[in-house]
Amino acid sequence: MFRRSLSTVAKMKPVTIKCLADVCVIPVSSPSVSDEVAKIQLLLKETGIKHTLHSAGSTLEGEWDTCMNVIGQIHEMLHKEGVLRVQSDIRVGTRTDKGQTAQDKIDIVHEKMKRGFNN
Amino acid sequence: MFRRSLSTVAKMKPVTIKCLADVCVIPVSSPSVSDEVAKIQLLLKETGIKHTLHSAGSTLEGEWDTCMNVIGQIHEMLHKEGVLRVQSDIRVGTRTDKGQTAQDKIDIVHEKMKRGFNN
Amino acid sequence: MFRRSLSTVAKMKPVTIKCLADVCVIPVSSPSVSDEVAKIQLLLKETGIKHTLHSAGSTLEGEWDTCMNVIGQIHEMLHKEGVLRVQSDIRVGTRTDKGQTAQDKIDIVHEKMKRGFNN
Amino acid sequence: MFRRSLSTVAKMKPVTIKCLADVCVIPVSSPSVSDEVAKIQLLLKETGIKHTLHSAGSTLEGEWDTCMNVIGQIHEMLHKEGVLRVQSDIRVGTRTDKGQTAQDKIDIVHEKMKRGFNN
C-alpha cells in the first residue's frame, strides 16, 4: 500500500489534478550525464507516463501524485546505479480554467507569433 | 487507497527516500502573494510536515512521496481559493551517503567559513 | 556604458564563459500567458541570441553576461507592457571540459538510447 | 569595458531594474558541496552584493545586471577551482508596483499569519 509509513507524520491525501511537470535531474557525480539522462528516458518509457525530452529536461504530463512519484523513481534508480547525490529542479504547473498539453502550449505561441497578436 | 485512478497509465511505486524539497509557489493571479504564502504556511503546519520558510520559498523535509503530495495539496488549496493557475519551482535533493537536515546544511557552511577551509 | 550605476556597490567584471540558460518566464498577472510568451519569442529573435522554444521555457545559448542581460530585457519589456510582477526560473549550466550546444545534448541522449549504452 | 565581445551577436542594453535573485549553485563534482558553498559565500561578501544564505540557496538583492554578473563570477570561480561543470537554478523576480526586500517578504507573511488574514 502506498501510504504505509508510520514514521511520516505529515497527512497525505490523493492529489489527482492534472499537471505539467518539467524536470531537470542532475546526478551530482561526473560532468558527463548523458548516460544517466538516457537511462531516465528508458525509465520514463517503462512507467508509461506521457513525456517529452528537450535540451534542459523532460516534461511529464499526468496526475500530480503520479508525475511526482515517477520523478522519485528516477532518483531511486540513479541511487541504485551508484550516484550518491541527485538534485532535481521541477517546474510544475496546474490550472483549473482549461486543460492544456505541453504540445498545446507550444502550438498556441507559434500561432500567435504568426497571427501578429490580432487575437 | 492511494493509487486508485485507473485513468493513470503510469506505474507508481512507493518512494520513501528522505529528501529536502525547496518549493517556491506562484499563484498566477495578482502581484501580491503574501496572503497566499501565509495560507501555504498554515497548510504546511496543519499537515505536520517539517518545514522552514525563507524569502524565496519553503523547505520541506521528509519522505519523497509525502513532501511531493503536500506540495500538491498546496496547489489544490489555492485552486479552491479561486486561483486559476498555480506554478511552482521545486528544488529537490536526495542523497545516500549521509542524512542531512536543512539546518545541517547551513551549519556546516558557516562552520567552514569560520575555520577557513582547514578541513 | 554598461556598468555605470554608482548606486550598485557590488563589483562586476565581464563573465564571458559560454552557457546554456533555460528560462521559464512567468508574468504574474493573468492565467493565460501565451500572448506574453509570443512577445518574448519576438524579443529573443530581435536581440539575435541563439534560442529554442520548448513547452516549459526557452533555452538561450551564448556568453553568460549576454544571456542574462537578454533575460533581463524580457522582464523590462513585460513591465513596459503593464505586467506588475515577473518571476523567472533559470536553469543555467557552464562547463569547461567541452563545448556543447542544446541540440548536442539531445542528440547524444537519443544516440545512447539507441546504442544501448555500449559506450 | 563591459560589452566588448564582437563574437556575441545578441544586442545588450543595461538592465538596472531591482531584482531578488535566489540562486542554488551545484558544482557537479562530488556529493559534498559545503566547501564550495562556503567559498561562494566568501565571494559574495567580497563583491559587496546584499545577500542572505538559506538551506536551499542564497538570495541576492540588487540591480539585474549586477546580480546576474555576480552569479556568473561564482561559476567562473568554481571552474578555476577545478570544477568541470556548474549548474545553477535561479529564481528571479522583478516588480514595478513596489520595492520589497527579501526580509520584507518574510515579515509580511509572518504578520499575516498572526493577524489571521483580517486584512
Automatic annotation (TrEMBL), chains A, B, C, D:
Gene3D superfamilies: 3.30.70.930. GO terms for cellular component: cytosol. It comes from the Eukaryota. Residues 21-109 form the Thiamine-binding protein domain. Belongs to the UPF0045 family. PANTHER family: UPF0045 PROTEIN ECM15. This is Thiamine-binding protein domain-containing protein. It comes from Wickerhamomyces ciferrii (strain ATCC 14091 / BCRC 22168 / CBS 111 / JCM 3599 / NBRC 0793 / NRRL Y-1031 F-60-10) (Yeast).
